[in-house]
Amino acid sequence: MSKNNLIALHCFGTEVGKIGFDEDRRASFFQYNPAFLKEDKYHSLFPLVFRRIPQTQVFSKYNNDTFRGLPPAIADSLPDAFGNIIFKAWLENNKKALRQISPLEQLAYVGQRGMGALEYAPAKEVAGNKTISIDEITTIVKQVLDHKQGTSANSLNHESLLNIFKIGTSAGGARPKILVSQNKATGTIIPGDLIYSADHDHYLVKLAIEESPAYSHELTEYVYYRIATAAGITMMPSKLIDDRHFATLRFDRQYGEKQHILTATGMAGWDFMDPKVSSYENLFELAIHLKLDHKDIEQLFRRMIFNLVFANHDDHLKNHSFIYDPPTDKWSLAPAYDLTYSLNPLLNYTQVSRALSVNGKRTSITLSDVMKIAGMFTVKNATAIIAEINAATDLWDVYAKEQHIPINAANTIKKHFMVLE
Ligand SMILES: Nc1ncnc2c1ncn2[C@@H]1O[C@H](COP(=O)(O)OP(=O)(O)OP(=O)(O)O)[C@@H](O)[C@H]1O
Ligand SMILES: [Mg+2]
Known about the structure:
This protein is α+β, with helices and mostly antiparallel strands. It contains 14 helices and 15 strands.
């Protein structure tokens, strides 16, 4: 490993190892810190892909947009589609181009502000305001997105962009979002990137960019959240801010601590864009491999049924995560997130296929397909779970109306529900 091209990986206050990157081969290296291995703790921190050996491990098969050449668990820390738009605008504003930045340099910008508990050192310092206004941030994010189509980001206000850079590049996903923390006693909202404590509620906020849009993804996501939790799906408590932005408490910041989390993609190295590996069977296999409790297997089944019945097609492998418990060295299923109608109901689609296949199918999935999965993974009360989710479709009209989803959009979404019987 060349010295200049190294970054240290930390977790729970310990240096776990070092990551290297070979620009020419677009391959990465990982070597455990001997002291970490000797401590003999956190055996299952990376339960797949990494081997717990003192020798340097080479990763050469992850040279694509999802992993950028990095080991999958590390690539989970990189900005995703929306984060990269912000990253690019911020670099442009600083007279740099994204292609000049290596994945390791990008990890240095992540530093201690990444999702989960993985940290990178040395980190690049990024200053910013101590408190923030969601309204102001939303305006700037809109400007950045408007600028995306070719126009230069130089005209954007440097300070404002800096604030968004701090809190808008860590979380994955394509939709505009920021991380904020709210003081439980005073209500003050501060950037959610670095500070964490039991005195704060830590939120991931999906921003409603348009003031009064014909249709709001955020309101629909809130309705889905209400229905999903009513139907027994475990999710983090969520709410609307100013009746328009969807805010969900972060499961990677709980009890005043950072929680180590990995997406299914980061855990197993399955590219969420690759249909060959994108199946519910793989997700269940992974859950079994991690020795998840039976209640988690059941929860995953309930989530799969919910996604089918409520036409959430965007159920890809980065939309499922696992959470690590340091004292027991065990993994469990993270709460569900990004459960929503993923298409635009104001547009027409001929045929839509879902990200994760069920019994080899991405369309026209039937009761017998899901019962096959129930059999394969011994989900005992499958019939009762399916009946409960089917029944929850009755909640749509009521909750959609309460949230003022326009009636034509609500009806279009409802047409895509698929009661399994
Ligand atoms: N409550 C939460 N706590 C911690 N992390 C979360 C939470 N909700 C989402 N995340 C993380 O943030 C990422 C982005 O969130 P989400 O999937 O809701 O956004 P999105 O932009 O709609 O995604 P997509 O591109 O799949 O549509 C997720 O992939 C997940 O890793
Ligand atoms: Mg998502």
